[in-house]
Specification:
- There is one protein chain.
- The protein is globular.
- It has two domains: about 150 residues, no CATH class; about 170 residues, no CATH class.
- By secondary structure, the protein is mainly alpha-helical.
- It contains 15 helices and no strands.
- About 80% of the residues lie in helices and about 0% in strands.
Length: about 350
């Protein structure tokens, strides 16, 4: 009886504090928010800085540098926002994100995700529980976050980096099979209600594996956009092709077979990217999981080219580079998805209205 009372009291406390232990809140909401934080700092900063370098604007270069410098705090506060943290907790996460990202090294984004979640929930637990809330809440949030960062962030970051390095090494070793695997899995993650961008960022997925990831994401976005043009017209083409293929998740649940054409397309464009064109994404790792969303994947490839040229590992951007990028990201996904989609419509696996967006 006493145990039941204790359990009930704990449950009521967690409900009152809006602390929900669930895969959706941590694996979908927080992860997706982290990707938005990365986009609003590291990614957009890279784009602004690259533009500044190309047009010779020192202001844009500096602005991009400032944006990139706050990627850790931006991720942490985005995660806290997704967890519906109170203001004092939210603002305190800035210091937590900075510590976790710095101590996590190459795998900093994953370290920020784990540490920010724990710090945020601890901060929420003590929020407004004392008369000196303005001291207690930020103190608890920051100290727990920084202590956890010091204790765990290096290990978390190293583990994430090691997995990413393993994937990239395997892709270099077996570009055909790994090109298929990375392209299909990252592409599927893009369409699912999880963040492929955050996954790529957490693993530091760049190089040839990053190119395969870009190919898979483009296959999903462009594939669904062109395949559903009959039902959704130009609005659907833009919202899926430059927005997200996640819009089709409701339709996929009703008829999973509509997912076959873009997934098959990704299984083809992945090895085309790795084996035929040697397409590498050496920009920010988060770009590998963005596909054609705002053309971020393509901008990432381009900024990688420029970085390689500056480092001396690439002589120049060639016509074959551009041909490969356009074919892998736009032309092949459109043609292949249309062809596979037409086949499935012919045998009745895909019917009129199956791809209609609400």
């Amino acid at each position: 009886m006493e145990q039941e009372k204790t359990t009930g009291a704990v449950r009521r406390f967690l409900e009152r504090k809006n602390i929900v232990f669930s895969a959706k809140r941590y694996g979908i909401d927080a992860l997706g928010a982290m990707a938005q934080g990365l986009f609003a700092s590291l990614l957009i900063g890279t784009i602004i800085g690259t533009l500044g370098e190309q047009i010779g604007s020192e202001f844009l270069v500096e602005a991009g540098g400032y944006a990139k410098a706050v990627s850790g705090p931006a991720m942490a506060i985005s995660i806290g926002y997704a967890l519906q943290a109170p203001q004092l907790v939210l603002f305190s996460l800035l210091a937590v994100g900075s510590a976790a990202n710095a101590l996590g090294g190459a795998g900093g984004p994953l370290a920020v995700l784990v540490v920010a979640i724990v710090a945020s929930e601890c901060g929420k637990a003590v929020s407004k529980e004392t008369k000196v809330d303005i001291l207690v809440t930020p103190l608890v949030t920051i100290l727990i976050g920084v202590l956890l960062s010091m204790a765990c962030a290096p290990a978390i970051g190293s583990a994430a980096s090691a997995v990413g390095q393993l994937i990239m090494w395997a892709t270099e070793l077996q570009p055909f099979f790994m090109g298929i695997l990375v392209s299909v899995l990252v592409g599927i993650a893009l369409t699912l209600p999880i963040s492929s961008a955050a996954i790529c960022a957490a693993l530091g997925l760049t190089g040839l594996a990053g190119g395969a990831a870009v190919a898979g994401c483009c296959a999903q976005m462009v594939g669904f956009a062109v395949m559903s043009f009959h039902e959704n017209k130009w609005g659907g083409l833009v919202s899926q092709g430059l927005g997200t293929s996640m819009l089709q998740m409701g339709n996929i649940l009703k008829n999973p077979r509509i997912w076959i054409p873009p997934t098959l397309a990704s299984a083809i464009t992945g090895p085309v990217a790795t084996c035929l064109f040697g397409l590498q994404m050496n920009g920010p790792a988060v770009s590998s999981g963005m596909g054609t969303c705002g053309l971020v994947g393509q901008i990432g490839v381009y900024t990688g080219w420029l970085a390689d040229i500056e480092a001396g590992s690439k002589a120049a951007v060639t016509a074959m580079d551009w041909i490969g990028l356009i074919l892998v990201c736009f032309v092949l996904p459109a043609i292949l998805s249309l062809a596979f989609g037409a086949m499935l419509r012919r045998i009745g696996w895909i019917k009129e209205g199956d791809l209609k967006l609400e």
